[in-house]
């Protein structure tokens, strides 16, 4: 039996990283009796080992709770800027949001970004100040900040502690009172939106769906509008948070659908599900996210290439915000060029591939996508430095820029301005949110922030500053490609694009590192960094020296000289025909980010 619309509410919890979203979800599960006390654990909805280890939410999770005679469809979302795509997808399945703000830290960069995202989706915002039990909490100051910056009345901000449970029942009442029920017509043709999917080895694709119009019934013959495929609804159900099968889902309800789909391409996120007998128009779906950071992923063992392809297919169903396409490297063999929303996103995807699919991978240095203007008048999009045209064909190179919003305590402003200026930043404004907190706005090249900018930001401000960024488009920059040559042979895995002023430093650093990592050969191996045809840095791995005159314990010196000359000639011939033996471990260590 479908639930009447007026008794339903659908809300997401949105906040900055570490402001207590998952802890609040735990308290809501307890208060509504969804999980028995003996089964309760911290971060209950975070099901991945990675989420528990890092203490962050990576995947949005949905659960249906009952509070009195009302049913609340709750979605717990990630807070990190790299996973904002998960948040935007979740908001499309809601009518309201709980905006959680730490009562001691106040508004942070992602608080602003997520709040604006909710306003764009025309959602009702219920603001709550969390962690009021902390001794440094100052809810009055933060409530004033929320009213001044976000325009939400200070007296309407609820004060809660997700850890102790104080004020959480009142928050639930406020959600039911302020958030409107979903719209929808139960008699209209079925329209259901897939907003997430996972792949199960036994049951195939399990899709999270929200019914917009009509009724989704178990056993119904369904049409997937975008692909045109037809499947039977083998099982539909709701997560409470355990999966519970139901006979039907009515308008506004959120649940899961299993239709025996084995091909991951047939149940993409944003797909509209309708009945074959009464087809309906497709829903708006989602705009595909644009990758910001690219790197090559290669299996350490070449035979694992097919397994890597299958793993990427299955993972892209669960996380549709990364892209991949095959590529070949002379040094690393066959692999994939993958695009990610940020560096943390790249790390998470790589770690999930290694853990969930038992793969051993090598990742090349991350880079961004460039637009290259050639002398022939064409514009090429390049996401791999080794694919950059020769210097003689280059007219100009454009790189992506972003607008960075940094929120920081005022005493750290100077060190952050210094950081942004050293990364080719252009200051666009400073605004004081209160007497001791400031908002710093800079325009920066994306390439300068994808590597260690966030780490530097946190270490220089003792963890107090927060960062959010939005794409601005492309601008012409003075960029060059730095190649690394081993024994005069270019190694594509080490090629990178940097600003001309930083080329020497990068080349020097790379040849020094490789000199330590490459084992000695039977001949001298020159390691060179080059820009165009000009060598800018060089080191040499000295040859192994076999003592050929050890057996000569006296006698004429010409005998020793003859042996040494023969050895020298042998090394010269070997160098002409020999290639440098570079162990896999040297590639992995040379490309490792943390170094």
List keywords for this structure.
single chain; 595 residues; alpha+beta; Rossmann fold; Elongation Factor Tu (Ef-tu), domain 3; Alpha-Beta Plaits; 31 strands
Written overview of the protein:
There is one protein chain. β10 and β11 (229-232) form a beta hairpin. The protein has 595 residues and is of the alpha+beta class. The termini are far apart. α12 runs antiparallel to α14 (584-591). It contains 14 helices and 31 strands. The radius of gyration is 29 Å and the shape is globular. It has 5 domains: 5-178, Rossmann fold; 191-275, Translation factors (Elongation Factor Tu (Ef-tu), domain 3, Beta Barrel); 293-366, Alpha-Beta Plaits (2-Layer Sandwich); 371-477, 2-Layer Sandwich (Alpha-Beta Plaits); 481-591, Elongation factor 4, C-terminal domain (Alpha-Beta Plaits, 2-Layer Sandwich). It has an 8-stranded antiparallel beta sheet with strand order 11-10-16-7-8-15-12-13, with helices on one face. A 6-stranded mixed beta sheet has the order 2-3-1-4-5-6, with helices on both faces. Strands 21, 22, 23, 24, 25 and 26 form a 6-stranded antiparallel beta sheet that branches.
In short:
By secondary structure, this protein is an alpha+beta fold.
* Main β-sheet, spatial strand arrangement: 11-10-16-7-8-15-12-13
CATH class designation of the largest domain:
Alpha Beta
Q: What number is the mean pLDDT?
A: 79
Number of strands: 31
Kindly report the name of the CATH homologous superfamily of the largest domain. Answer: P-loop containing nucleotide triphosphate hydrolases
Based on secondary structure, the structural category is alpha+beta
Based on Cα principal axes, name the global outline. globular
**Do you know the CATH architecture of the largest domain?**
3-Layer(aba) Sandwich
Q: What is the CATH topology assignment of the largest domain?
A: Rossmann fold
The number of helical runs is: 14
- State the domain count: 5
Terminus-to-terminus distance:
58 Å
Q: Compute the gyration radius: what is it?
A: 29 Å
Sheet having the most strands: 8 strands, antiparallel
Helix content: 25-40%
* Beta-strand residue percentage: 25-35%
């Amino acid at each position: 039996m479908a639930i009447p619309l007026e008794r339903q509410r659908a809300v997401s919890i949105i906040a900055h990283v570490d402001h207590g979203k998952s802890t609040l979800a735990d308290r809501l599960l307890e208060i509504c009796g969804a999980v028995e006390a003996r089964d309760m654990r911290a971060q209950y909805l975070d099901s991945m080992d990675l989420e528990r280890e890092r203490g962050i939410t990576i995947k949005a999770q949905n659960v249906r709770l009952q509070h009195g005679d009302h049913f609340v469809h709750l979605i717990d979302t990630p807070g990190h800027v790299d996973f904002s795509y998960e948040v935007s997808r979740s908001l499309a399945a809601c009518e309201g949001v709980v905006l959680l703000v730490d009562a001691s830290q106040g508004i942070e960069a992602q608080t602003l970004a997520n709040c604006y995202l909710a306003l764009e989706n025309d959602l009702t915002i219920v603001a709550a100040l969390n962690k009021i039990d902390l001794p440094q909490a100052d809810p009055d100051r933060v409530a004033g900040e929320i009213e001044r910056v976000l325009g939400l009345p200070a007296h309407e901000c609820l004060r809660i502690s997700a850890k102790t449970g104080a004020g959480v029942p009142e928050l639930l009442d406020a959600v039911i009172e302020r958030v409107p029920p979903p719209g929808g017509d139960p008699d209209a043709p079925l329209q259901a939106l897939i907003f997430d999917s996972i792949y199960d080895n036994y049951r195939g694709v399990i899709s999270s769906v929200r019914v917009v119009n009509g009724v989704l019934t178990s056993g119904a013959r369904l049409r997937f509008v975008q692909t045109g495929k037809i499947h039977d609804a083998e099982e539909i159900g709701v997560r409470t948070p355990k999966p519970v099968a139901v006979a039907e889902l009515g308008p506004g309800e959120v649940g899961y659908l299993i239709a025996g789909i084995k091909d991951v391409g047939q149940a993409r996120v944003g797909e509209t599900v309708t009945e074959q007998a009464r087809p309906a128009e497709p829903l708006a779906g989602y705009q595909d996210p644009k990758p910001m950071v690219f790197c090559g992923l290669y299996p350490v063992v070449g035979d694992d290439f097919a397994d890597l392809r299958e793993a990427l297919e299955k993972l892209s169903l669960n996380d549709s915000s990364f892209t991949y396409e095959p590529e070949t490297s002379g040094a690393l063999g066959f692999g994939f060029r993958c695009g990610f929303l940020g560096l943390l996103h790249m790390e998470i995807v790589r770690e999930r591939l290694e853990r969930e699919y038992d793969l051993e991978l090598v990742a090349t240095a991350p880079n961004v996508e460039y637009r290259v203007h050639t002398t022939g008048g064409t514009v090429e999009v390049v996401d791999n430095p080794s694919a950059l045209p020769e210097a003689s064909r280059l007219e100009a190179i454009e790189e992506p820029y972003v607008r960075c919003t940094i929120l920081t305590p005022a005493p750290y402003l100077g060190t952050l301005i210094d950081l942004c200026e050293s990364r080719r930043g252009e200051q666009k404004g400073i605004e004081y949110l209160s007497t001791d907190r400031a908002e710093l706005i800079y325009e920066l090249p994306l390439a300068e922030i994808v590597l260690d900018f966030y780490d530097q930001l946190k270490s220089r401000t003792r963890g107090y500053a927060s960062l959010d960024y939005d794409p601005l488009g492309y601008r012409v920059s003075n960029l060059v490609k730095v190649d690394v040559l081993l024994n005069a042979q270019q190694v594509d895995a080490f090629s990178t694009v940097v600003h001309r002023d930083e080329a020497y430093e990068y080349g020097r650093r790379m040849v020094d590192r490789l000199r330590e990592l490459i084992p000695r050969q039977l001949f001298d191996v020159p390691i060179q960094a080059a820009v165009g045809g000009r060598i800018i840095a060089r080191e040499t791995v000295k040859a192994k020296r076999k003592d050929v005159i050890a057996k000569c314990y006296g006698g004429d010196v010409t005998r020793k000289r003859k042996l040494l000359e023969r050895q020298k000639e042998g090394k010269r011939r070997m160098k002409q025909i020999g290639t440098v033996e570079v162990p896999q471990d040297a590639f992995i260590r040379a490309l490792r980010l943390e170094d």
